């Protein structure tokens, strides 16, 4: 059995837990909207056609914000197509996903769904095929209470109150050659600045996100952020980061260490943004909106033959996650929490059916994928302040990241106690973790493990299905003792340990 020690010192506070860390993403892509959140005629659908089973799982997941309507989709989207009487809404080619968009759902329905679900909407504007005017029009439609052509149109369409959307993304992945209207950093930076300036004339209090890189392996990574921020520094609040990971060539150990790339991504963007700020003589700090992250077997999509047809809501990007995916996913979540001082928002991409924690059958069942569990547990238990912890533990060698620690962890603390989120990346060995809860015990007597759960499985490739939805789910971990505090973490596991005073 491997051995490790971990000291929790509340003095190593990073920042408050940001609720927007637990954001998600709904794109008009595949079955995320249609037969995902929306399916009129489904046995659980409400009078607006929103699936009640998906709403219940969304609430259980604990998501806070939701980005919409894309993604690559937004770069060809005309928001006007999706408002007004449904029978007059046009069907359009969606070039990004080679599908037909029926526009049955648009901004008004989406915002209504977020209200029912209790989520904050986060809107992206099209800076691929469109520009300043269309972005300002959408903002007027959404946020002006009344008395202008577009705000009155919203009211006439049934939305009496303004949508009051605070966070806006200035385009999507404009650094990517796959993006409709792809631009150079200078071209995009200029357009983003012009759009931001005009949007702030409508509403100075908006939070605006400039597009950063679509991945740390993009050839323009770093220089893209520097150029875009040179143009937009005073006009935006956040720069976006997007990252997806998958197991490649059977290298499970390397995959479980993928959070190393996310660490590198975050620290590079933070130092690049700070360097631009220093050059401009600004004291303002740009924060990060990690508004797309997940495990995604993108190589399978790239290997597939190009589509010849234009289907409505086809099954696309429907990855079925296994235990190891959920553990890598948990490690990414730990990384986002560890950087709560600069990562102000994050969106797990996406919510339903499309690389998602929730899966549905059209007309049928909905269930939790393996990745549902780390997210739901962290959203529920990460409260108060983030506390940095650095376990003393064995390491292992990976081809991509060199030597990496077998444990990856973060803690949060509130009045009720402390919660540790820990991943054991060893593919073979259980690990005994000795805990020193330090000052949590001072003056308050001993510290005990109030509750511990583990997400693991003897088959690291075990998945949940509609017929066996709880095959991979957190179970109580009773393999622990007090005085001194110790707990055993199985190989390839995600663990949540709640500590309180004895
Ligand atoms: O989330 C799926 C896709 O990944 C999004 O549309 C795009 O922004 C990214 O490349």
UniProtKB/TrEMBL annotation:
Enumerate the InterPro entries for this protein.
Answer: Alpha-L-AF_C (IPR010720), ASD1_cat (IPR055235), GH (IPR017853), Glyco_hydro_b (IPR013780)
What is the reaction catalyzed?
A: Hydrolysis of terminal non-reducing alpha-L-arabinofuranoside residues in alpha-L-arabinosides
Could you say which enzyme class this protein belongs to? hydrolase
Q: What EC number(s) would the UniProt record show?
A: 3.2.1.55
Task: Output the Gene3D superfamilies linked to this UniProt entry.
Answer: Glycosidases (3.20.20.80), Golgi alpha-mannosidase II (2.60.40.1180)
Q: Mind listing the GO molecular function terms for this protein?
A: alpha-L-arabinofuranosidase activity
What SMART domains does the annotation carry?
Alpha-L-AF_C
Q: Where is this region: Disordered?
A: 462-484
Q: Where are the transmembrane segments?
A: none
Domain Alpha-L-arabinofuranosidase C-terminal intervals: 291-493
List the GO biological process terms.
Answer: L-arabinose metabolic process; polysaccharide catabolic process
**The UniProt record lists the keyword Hydrolase:** yes
Pfam families recorded for this chain?
A: Alpha-L-AF_C, ASD1_dom
Source domain of life: Bacteria
List keywords of the entry alphabetically.
Carbohydrate metabolism, Glycosidase, Hydrolase
Its family remark reads: Belongs to the glycosyl hydrolase 51 family.
Describe, as the record does, how this protein assembles with itself and its partners: Homohexamer; trimer of dimers.
Q: What is the name of the protein in this document?
A: non-reducing end alpha-L-arabinofuranosidase
* The species this protein was found in: Microbispora catharanthi
